[in-house]
Amino acid sequence: MFNTALDELTDYPFDRLRALLDGLTPPAGMEPLVMSLGEPQHAPPELIAQTVATHANEWGKYPPVAGSADLLDAISDWLKRRYQLPDGMIDPSRHVCAVSGTREALYMAGDIAISRTKRGQTPAVLIPNPFYQVYVGATVMSGAEPVYMSATADTGFLPDFDAVDPAVLERTALAFLCSPANPQGMAADRAYLEHIVGLARKYDFVLAMDECYAEIYDSVAPTGIMEACAAMGGGLSNVLAFHSLSKRSSAPGLRSGFVAGDAKLIQLLKRLRNYGGATIPPPLAAAAAALWRDETHVDANRALYREKFDRADQIIGRRFGYYHPDGGFYLWLDVGDSEQATQTLWTDAGVKVIPGAYLARPGADGVNPGQRYIRIALVHDPETVADGLHRVVDALA
Ligand SMILES: Cc1ncc(COP(=O)(O)O)c(C=O)c1O
């Protein structure tokens, strides 16, 4: 009567957080502060409203499935600039598909990468642990087996693909990787990325590279998978990169992003989207194109995050295993017991965070790599963030 695979998707982190805090209240007279959600609170660029108004005559059109030609051009030009790609490496009509946010595209990666079997066996999907929940949704709904790769302090907060059994790699259909990583903020370097691309090609799996935090960094722009592909000769086979305007442009409500990579996979993604994808309304596609062409608002956005991380350096100092992440906008703090700390922060400091345990699963060794951690999103203005971090230190120290 219904798809029982959905029974495996009942522990969404924010539902668990609601249950954990149910019946608990923040201190009287203290303004509650939500730092659990990765939803940028910076003002979205005015460019969005202006461009949508200019294109208001286009609401009456059905949008093309891969995004407008202008948006695909803007995206290809941005990729080329951001990653110094050689001329001709990205053909907007073959290597790019615009999507309504990377969440839906990451989910669809499962649909295009996973067949019912691989080499006669149940397909495996490699997932960094902790991870963005959609990776598991894509895996489970395609009938594949999730294989969690711990990304802890011991592995430099990135998964160690070499620790995966070659027999599992043989049946791997898809691997997710996030850099800079949510929640740990670690960025993979080029050698690491080239190695993973090599594995994807050797074992013939799709590498879904989630780079939606690629534009939120301090001073060094994180390396992208496209740079690794360029260094390896410029081919894009087995590789898909996922980018978003949600973080880059503080516009999560615009629901706009893109997938770029292997021409065959992009063709399959477009085919799938013909049958069940959400297309991008033309005025919103125009706004997205304007945002990819503009760097001024992105510089200003980055400056705000820089200020917040500088404050975090001072306020948190050496407590809770704090480190200044390579990118993204999260703190990943070792507090000993993530659920208990989350409850204490809510009842004693009025600060809502999310337990790391909810963002990860127990690995093969039975250990949940998020168990000791909380994730704090630095998405508000710098003053509010500083206030929140002082409250965290006071409540947990
Ligand atoms: C790691 C990661 N990937 C993808 C997304 C999805 O972003 P969007 O669908 O807004 O592009 C998020 C959102 O928080 C995320 O944290």
Overview in brief:
This protein is α/β, with parallel strands linked by helices and 397 residues long. Helix content is 41%, strand content 14%.
Q: Count every helix, treating DSSP H or I runs of 4 or more residues as helices.
A: 15
**What is the chain-wise order of helices and strands?**
HEHHHEHEHEHEHEHEHEHHHEHEEEH
Q: Specify the CATH class of the largest domain.
A: Alpha Beta
What is the beta-strand fraction?
5-15%
Helical/strand content category: alpha/beta
How many structural units, i.e. domains? 2
What are the distinct ligands in this entry? pyridoxal-5'-phosphate
Named at the architecture level, the CATH assignment of the largest domain is 3-Layer(aba) Sandwich
Structure write-up:
Helices cover 41% and strands 14% of the residues. The protein has 15 helices and twelve strands. It folds into two domains: 4-43 and 297-396, Aspartate Aminotransferase, domain 1 (Alpha-Beta Complex); 47-294, 3-Layer(aba) Sandwich (Aspartate Aminotransferase, domain 2). By secondary structure, it is α/β, with parallel strands linked by helices. α8 (190-203) packs across α9 and α14 (338-349) crosses α15 (382-396). Residues 38, 101-103, 132, 178, 182, 210, 212, 244, 246, 252, 257 line the site of pyridoxal-5'-phosphate (PLP).
